[in-house]
Predict the structure.
Amino acid sequence: MSLESLPDEVAGGDVTAYRRALGAFATGVCVVTADSSIGPLGITINSFTSVSLTPRLVLWCLDERSERWHAFCEAERFSIHVLDAQSEALARRFAKGIGLMEEREFQRVGDAPPRLGAAAARFDCKTHDRVQMGDHMMIIGEVTGFEASGAAALTYFQGRYGIAGGAQA
């Protein structure tokens, strides 16, 4: 992290250049799922990070311009799915629009949030905190359950999807 001021062209509103610069950081791709008043929803994110091991806390960020803003801000439980390398279509499916899930796209296990079938890892969470920061809401979740498959993960770098890792022998 740099404490230096942003260049004038970025501070002055050159959003495209700023987004391009941010795209130089490769990220994983996740889909967050939650129940809402209109049914189960999904949203693609790349703003997932671990916050704490004890207690188990993670966070993700939600753009206030999202059509799913209210549903995810109000959700008390959600699941974060780190997508596996074969899930680019799923990432694209939940990247825009309402993100209403079809019954064939998810499973129910007890009273957990809707779960996707294919994921390199999944974290079931209850909302721990919400913090408005600029034009995004940081949603901090307390992890109540998790699993990892060891599969290679879907990545995003400079506007393109890619693959990282996989199980090591």
Observations:
- The helical segments are 8-11, 15-22, 69-74, 88-93.
- The two ends are 34 Å apart (CA to CA).
- The longest strand covers residues 121-133.
- Residues 15-22 form the longest helix (8 residues).
